[in-house]
Amino acid sequence: MKKFNYKDIFINKHVAISRAISMVENNDSQVAKFYDKIYKYSNEPVRIGVTGPPGAGKSTLVDKLISCFINDNKSVGVVAIDPSSPFSGGALLGDRVRMSKYSENNNVYIRSMGNRGDLGGLSRKAQEVGDILAASGKDIIIFETVGVGQAEHDIVNAADFTIVVLVPESGDEVQLMKAGIIEIADLFVINKSDRPGSKRIERTLVDILHAVSTEDGFIPDVMSSVATTGVGVKQIFDKIIRNIQLFDESGQLEKRRLRRYKNRIKALVVEKLEGIFWDLNRRRLFKNITSSIDSVANPPNSVVRKLLLNFDKEVK
Ligand SMILES: Nc1nc2c(ncn2[C@@H]2O[C@H](COP(=O)(O)OP(=O)(O)OP(=O)(O)O)[C@@H](O)[C@H]2O)c(=O)[nH]1
Ligand SMILES: [Mg+2]
Asked: Ligand 1 pocket test: which of 60, 82, 202 has the largest number of ligand atoms within 8 Å of its C-beta?
């Protein structure tokens, strides 16, 4: 195998990009050697998050948006994150098909990432993959993730602009409010609007959004599309570009970048501490203590105290 040279990332060599991404995924110790050097060049592109329920048409929509960006002379890097999938590196069939469509195109790089069962870390890794793609010169980075539980909130931490994709069947007012998506979207897209109920959910959403007041008075738009045929996509694209421009002018973009940056620091601290904490000794201790427990009578904190004993000295 050819020797890995991180500088090849800067000249958009897709082979080097793929290698670097695999290293991030595998927690390879080499990452530390090049990461800070590429990070410096990773802050230029706008990062767009696309989230929504399984099968809503996120990938189809992103695919159409990629075409819009290319027509606009912009290069795109896509990180498709599926926390429920054990696959990584493009093993998802649908994603593989769309990736092959662009395999000869140096202006598009698509990578899918799954969760290999490792403790957390997926959102951190996805952001680092975004940094690699950014350093390769991509103008736009898209994070696409299935909205299950925590995932859609992670995407907000990774993106400057978040699009929530829903379908006519996504539910009534109560379901939408419960889903926790109202707070995170900068733009709603009702996809599959070729199916019945599209107008109804659009109206419901608009009503909710006007009723819920936000800090800065920003009310996300609700748009609709048929991603398979491309209906509505150009309007969505124009809206994204316009909103990002407005965010840039108002200072909102910079604010979000700073928030993103601070959140990354916090998440890294947690991950680092967890890594140090669960060393071999402590994993053994945990097993020893808990294997003899045959009742839930004692408060969990009593065990935690035993585990934490002397930990403060270790991290100093
Ligand atoms: N009728 C209709 N079908 C659509 C539309 N957009 C996507 N689909 C179909 O919906 C299915 C799922 O589309 P995807 O783009 O894979 O959806 P996704 O949200 O990326 O799915 P996951 O990544 O599995 O969560 C595919 O069979 C698409 O062809 C649409 O606007 N109308
Ligand atoms: Mg998808």
From this structure: 60
pLDDT of res. 316 = 67
Is residue 274 included in any domain, yes or no?
A: no
The tens digit of pLDDT for each residue in 236-257 reads 999 999 999 999 999 999 999 9
Rounded to the nearest whole angstrom, what is the distance from the C-alpha of residue 255 to the centroid of ligand 1? 33
Residues 42 and 173 in one domain: yes
Taking the model in full, what pTM does it have? 0.91
Q: In what order do the strands lie in the sheet with 46-52?
A: 108-114, 76-82, 140-146, 46-52, 161-166, 187-190, 221-224
> Same structural domain for residues 113 and 184?
yes
* Ligand 1: nearest atom to the Cα of 231: 31
Q: Confirm whether 273 is domain-assigned.
A: no
Banded pLDDT at 176 (limits 50, 70, 90): confident
| Proximal ligand: closest to the CA of 53 | 1
- 161, 250 Cβ separation under 8 angstroms: no
Give the ligand whose atoms come closest to the C-alpha of residue 189. Answer: 1
Does residue 30 belong to any structural domain of this protein?
yes
Q: Which residues line ligand 1 (CB under 6 A)?
A: 54-60, 94, 146, 191-192, 194-195, 226-228
Per residue in 266-285, pLDDT tens? Answer: 989 998 898 889 998 999 99
**277: CB partners within 8 A, 6+ apart:** 311
* 170 DSSP 8-state letter: G
Report the percentage of the chain scoring pLDDT > 70: 90
